[in-house]
Batch of 4 targets.
Target 1
Amino acid sequence: MVARFGGDEFAIIQSGIKSAADAEKLAKRIVEIVGKPYRDKGREMHVGVSLGIALYPGDGRDADTLLTNADMALYRGKSEGRNVYRFFEPGMDALMRERRALEADLEAALPKREFELDFQPILNIGSGEIVGAEALMRWRSPSRGLVSPENFIAAAEETGLIVQLGDWALRKACSVAAHWPPEMRMAVNVSAAQIKSGGFARSVISALAFSGLPANRLELEITETVMMDESDAVLRTLSQLRGLGVRIALDDFGTGYSSLGYLRRFPVDKIKIDRSFIRDLDRRDTAAIVRTVIGLGAELGITVTAEGVETEAQLDMLRKAGCGQAQGYLIGVPAKAADMSRLLRSQALLRQSG
């Protein structure tokens, strides 16, 4: 029996099974079938599903307990990735309590001004000069210390808080960049939830107006999850912002279902090669993929930025391949706004003296 709770939540009651292996077999089949791509009006679409499984009577003898425990298993699965299934385990209740405590602290953190932005420089490989930076959100909690974005961004997206956090980060980043040299660009990460919120374009325009930053100095980094939802509203919003001069960058390029298809459907200004490819540049097949992406960018007139550059050997290979920009610990670690400003001033002085 399949029942819809609401939104994108469903519950399945499987009866007459002999062991947990039967439930696992059904879960695998659901993940496999739902995850297959399908076409609608000429477009390839993808849907993912995650499942939490609780077994009667070991995991509960009444409906409420079984649903609660299945929900805990579902949260565990989502925290480890998408398109997965997980069985309930007794220790998961502690994980759920911690998740709820994290969400409560997260909700209170923004009005308490516990969030900060760090800025990682982006290098023009040809000129050897810094041409901008990416804003990276940090949460410094009085009780938790410095919380990794990997631990709180997902929770913010699931609770909807990412819209408020994103608006704050956008306005803060634009205000910082407004004091940088006029050739410097600021890159800000944007989640699918922000764009779907309905007021994203107004938030961007407001941040630019508040800070005085010209639109062409702002880059919005979107992931393929945004492009996968090709609703007219999403494409309209991105087109409107691009029309104002805001640049659109496709982040984590090459890690999704159909990266090349996104370039055909929506013209972006930049593609960022995911760090996983740069890490394995010493492998022949990976190096060939990276060179191909760089060549594709050149053919389409799209700037290509390599993320996660950590060695001189990686930078040298990218330079020889004609890659436009590089970002990573070799170029510079994420720094506070004041440190980034000092770096840019030093670069300007060196340029003048040269």
Target 2
Amino acid sequence: MNTKRKLNYKLIFMILIIIIIVIAGIIGVRKYINYRNSYEYKLKNVGYTETEILDILKLENSTIDELLKKKYNRLNIKFIRQKYFLTKNLENYIQYYNDHKDDKISHIVSMVNVSADNDYYDEDIVKKADISKNELMLVNKFHYLDNTYAPNDIVKVSNQFAYGDNEIKQVVYEKFRSMYHDAKKKGLSLIITSSYRDYNFQKKLWDGYAAQKGEEWADSVSARAGYSEHQTGYTLDIVTYNATMSNFENTDEFKWLQDNAHKYGFILRYPKDKEDITGYSYESWHYRYVGEETAKKIKDLGITFDEYYAYYIEKN
């Protein structure tokens, strides 16, 4: 009996060992299959190092999927590590880099994201502005409005707040008046010099500049018809009494706007040292209404509306 029991125990033990081996094998095969299907394995096969893979795995799955469709390039990881990296622009980043190798990687990303690596008003690049975005619609040298476009709820601006005849969208007018009165409490005066302009008005303006100093200069200081933010009804040119546009930045009013305009939903649309991003010379007087939340984000991030739109709105 003892011999039979020992044999039974040995048999049971052997069966358990076999079961454990089979289970371990199944688990091992599954792990191997899962590994073969993992991003880590696929990225290694493309040529990325373990350190590079750790950075790539922080991206969204859809971004990694797109990246796997592209060949390995040592420059890829430099761009991937940039805050405003967009997978769809990777090839353009590399192409722009090859022509501007002394440029900063972060600046290359910004330039490509806003399409500034292309010629302004290029017919193959420009597209209609998405007016459904309302105060967040982008109008610049690559996004245009039809010659028939006119914003709704345009209201006349009182001469208390503006020089001459001006009109603007109701919401912008309300926010400006609130800003105007708060600035006045600080002993400061704000005045609107220009607001909504229709397509025909902008055409006459740009044509005049071009006739005066040529098209290149006109493009640096003014938008072509259809490409002007003023046509959206969300833009104001603001100065103060006894100041011109050219010296407005030296006033206390300008300094106050720098610290407070975002609280009312306004941003300085064409900042200093951002000319290559915006396509326009620095304009201390040009303010765009984008809403309080977005204005604060843009101020905190220290970027232009063009950059914000490319990454946070038009990202996909």
Target 3
Amino acid sequence: MILHELIDFEILRVIWWVLLGVLLTGFALTDGFDMGVGALLPFVARTDVERRQAINTVGPVWEGNQVWFILGGGAIFAAWPPLYAISFSGFYLAMFLVLAALILRPVAFKYRSKRDGKRWRETWDWALFIGGAVPALLFGVAVGNVLLGVPFHLTDTLMPRYDGSALGKLFGLLRPVALLAGVVSLSMLLMHGAAWLGLKADGPVADRARRFGIVAGLVAASGYALAGLWLLVGVDGFALVGEVAKDGPSNPLYNEVTRGGTWLVAYDERPWIAIAPLMGFAGIAMAIRGLRAGREVSTLLWSKLGITGIVSSVGLTMFPFILPSTVDPDSSLTVWDASSSHLTLFVMLVATVIFLPLILAYTAWVYRVLWGKVTQDDVSDNAETLY
């Protein structure tokens, strides 16, 4: 037997679908509070010392947290090539805006404290706001569009074709459900950033962050509930028709797909997935309670649970679809027909088993070394520090 055949192709596909979800969730949990702090910066910190205090809570860790975004993009490229090709081409201008904001953020970190001028520093503070708020919003808009379906089709040679112009693709993403998903994404990461500031900062910055975090959590929970209701009554779902070849060729045109009904039929077919939205609501509710009570570690952990529940509920609801097509449902990408080859998935899994624990161990070590609060005295007494 060839080594990679020790694991069935069907199982490998599911494993990589799970791993993709883990990587994207890891990005939301780690870089999410970085973006949340950046988006909160103009509102929770009023003086230069307070702003430096807030920035220094994430300054030493944001680069490591962004590794999860790179890993997620790499996993899409290697494990799900059609998903990478179609989503990055169709969402090109939106991706450009996200990347521009993410590029602006490190520049702001590095240059903000190079000069003492008030206008100089305030300009870079707003750059940090953009670098946090814009990706947080647009990632949610992208997820909303995935749930709605994307207007693409595949030719007989599996070349993707999109309807409309480049600007039409960008503005076509701004549909009401997608915008609601963007609001949920932004508000839950604002709550997460507030929980982080409550843990790592003190004084007025932590107090203001908790107040903003409570409001953001209420908005996130309300938006999440409204989105679920909207999916039930106003959004068509997708379903595979007939016999499905779970270990068949990686050809999205191989299986037949129909559009209609609701995505939420998945909860009738797999009732156990209801644990995801329950985690989402419970995590947000307990995080809000922790913010009100001034709790620190537990609040951040509850916030992480809420984000994990919200993110995973999307994937579990859509399974096995990963990118539906509105103009040609048969072109929709699913777990069963849009993956790399059996051998490629196996080799990548071996590499992941080796290197992912190392990344987790290193990340845990970094957070342990950097544990503790950042106070105003810390930044006042170290005026020449990087941030």
Target 4
Amino acid sequence: MLGWELPPYHSGGLGRACEGMTKGIVRCGTAISFVLPKNFHGARYDWMSVYDASEHASAKLDQSVMDDQVCLEFAMRHRCSLTQGYFVHPGGDNTVCKACFCDIEAGEFTHVDLYSKGAAEIAKHAQFEAIHAHDWMTFPAAIMARNVAARRRKRVPFIAHVHSTEIDRHDGSHIYDMEKSGMQAADHIIAVSHYTKSVITKYYGIDPAKISVVHNGIEQRSVQRHPKHPLKRRYKLVLFIGRITYQKGPDYYIRLAKRVTDQYSNVKFLMIGSGDMQASMVELAAREGLTEKLLFSSWISDDAMDLAYQMADVFVMPSVSEPFGIVPLEAIQNGTPVVISKNAGVTEVIRSCIAVDFWDIEKMASAIVTLLKNEPYAKNMVKKAQEEIKGLTWDVAASKLVSIYSEAIQGASNA
């Protein structure tokens, strides 16, 4: 399996999805070898074998510089593309990349190229029946690994798992080209929702027969309840957790905050996360007169996530385009009602929520105010939603994935 991140060093939902998914697959009796760009020695993944592509990528890598502590410092500050976002921006701060390589000139997709080379080297010495690759930055590595198997006269299927697309993110045409090439090269594609399948079919021209939908799950666990936060003694709280980028709709969230706080005085809005729109969102909040009403925080640790969810009276996800969306499930698990965009795949599996068009600020603000004022209604919604997520497990998703593996392997052997 080829993936870009795993907890505790991850930038968002992809890492948590890979963690839960792999645990479920192993419980189904399938062994996994997972290839990361960089595997920090402090991270433990006892249920599977994890390989470090950086150790195999190139003889030019300066191993004396690329140590755990140096990389970890960059990763924890979310400045490195290994945990922040796939590629180094041209003209950006290339001192970040000096932690990984010295005499290699850093380019836009250098980390992706090095990851692919490392994965290909690992594939030369590994035995594998299928290649399962997550999102565009691992697709080139999957193709190279499949070619390695082919040179051994073994036909190994490449399964592309699409958690998000360039159509969702709107980042750059080169990534779109890499996505499309990867999808075309794949033997089969897994989409995290029917919404994402429709995007792949419409915008990438992929035959829908080649695509299976496997919804994400959530780990079933007993949530530890935290003491009531002092802020809750005076205010109701509305929460946003996510990357502060165009895709997640942070500007709509700020407009929501303005609309709601104008109607409801004792409410605070929290925005937790980081991203390329962070500075502009702080400026927008100031222009809207929300300096004392909207609180910002950079990304928090996984250990603090439950506390954040439990602080909130309402969780809001106003994404412009959201292939799935794990954070609403986590909010529900913590007893918080959710208001989410209709453009979110999670609405296909959770009905006990309020789904509104992301651009309909008036309607979304009205939904938030209703939940803030009508506590019995909010509690009943959460109770029903918690019953729904009991059936949304990673074991259910894993069972579907293992069936897809079997069909793909059978198809490859018959080709």
